[in-house]
Amino acid sequence: MQEIQVSDFERTTDGQMAHLYRITNASGASVVLCDYGASVVSILVPDKQQNLRDVVLGYAHLSGYETGGEYFGASVGRCCNRIREGAFTLNGVSYQLAVNDGTNHLHGGNRSFSRRLWNASCAENRVIFQLESPDGEEQYPGNMQVTATYTWDDTNTLTIAYDAICDQDTLCNLTNHTYFQLDGEGSGSIEKQQLLVRANAYLPTDSTSIPTGEIAPVAETPFDFTAYRSIGEALEGKHEQLTYASGIDHSYVVDSHAPFQAAAYSAESGIGLTCTTTQPAVHVYTGNFVHVPESLGKNGHRYTARSGFCLETQNYPDAIHHPNFPTPILPANTPYRQVTTFHFSLGREEA
Predict the structure, then answer these.
(1) How far apart are CA 265 and CA 197, in angstroms?
(2) Is the dihedral of CA 38, 178, 123, 135 positive or negative?
């Protein structure tokens, strides 16, 4: 395993220097991380011609990570996804969070973990990012300590472990928001790429992307990825839920006992991806609202809708308002830990 290379990136708007951390494995495949947002900036893996392709979208400049609405590669919290009207009650106390997505709270609010410069340290093939979120930040209760540990190994597997602890009861739902493009970032639409999700049910939403509380079967709907199918084929389906989100932006109730919870494959590049997670859901987002000009995309690339897809491993969205969902409440002084892996290989994983 090669030594982790650390380099300056750019300064934040308040003058702090952000850094890039490149982990290169024995075969030359690599991951680049950033301490701003504890973000995944690049993943270089071999295609079927043994050429390295960067298979994740990203911003060319730090300003994109500071202000972009796409959340490219970011660690998102304190509570990812949406909370209806940004309001909830915990232990008899009402909390009003920022409303930053129409009428709802999204991805932790205006000062999300994705908009913070994390402390970083390196150890072998790992980068450990740490953050303190004070009581009342974004109106969430409790002083929370968060750690995001990224490990890149010789099998081309990226492991992301999120750990947290808080001195009061609070909400906690952490995810990584990487956008994958298995033909290489900037190569166009992901619609021909194939997706598999080990889930027989998904969470329908209202027109503002808040779950209705129903856990609905995927069978005979465009949301059925129990066998590999192209993303484009699913998006061509006729369904009210696709209209609400301008595509797929939905959580899948995954099989925790399956050898992996989701997978994807590109016949063009030959690159396959498998995702395992300890979380109860994988939120599939088909990049419906991506809009990044050439001046801000990596390598001068312009990103539009369908330029990448996300597999956001997480608890169910808006779970605080749905007693039938797994609780998002993290009790005081109780460790939170969730682990996700993204494994890259050649060919389609069938197991």
Answers:
(1) 12
(2) positive
104-152 pLDDT per residue, tens:
999 999 989 999 999 999 999 999 999 999 999 999 999 999 999 999 9
3-state secondary structure of 268: coil
Has this prediction a pTM greater than 0.85? yes
Average pLDDT over the chain, rounded to an integer: 97
What's CA 246's distance to the chain center, in Å? Answer: 19
d(CA 321, CA 225): 27
Other residues' Cβ atoms within 10 Å of the Cβ of residue 334: 12
Whether 160 and 312 have beta carbons less than 8 Å apart is answered as no
Neighbours of 102 (CB within 10 A): 12
Radius of gyration of the chain (CA): 19
Which positions are catalytic? 177, 312
Q: What is the pLDDT of residues 275-328, one digit of tens each?
A: 999 999 999 999 999 999 999 999 999 999 999 999 999 999 999 999 999 999
Tell me 321's DSSP state: G
The pLDDT value given to residue 105:
97
Cis preceding-peptide flag for 84 (omega within 30 of 0) = no
Taking a C-beta distance cutoff of 8 angstroms, is the pair 111, 129 a contact?
no
Distant-in-sequence, close-in-space partners of 220: CB < 8 Å, separation ≥ 6: none
Residue 117 per-residue DSSP state: B
82-83/249-254 β-pairing: unpaired
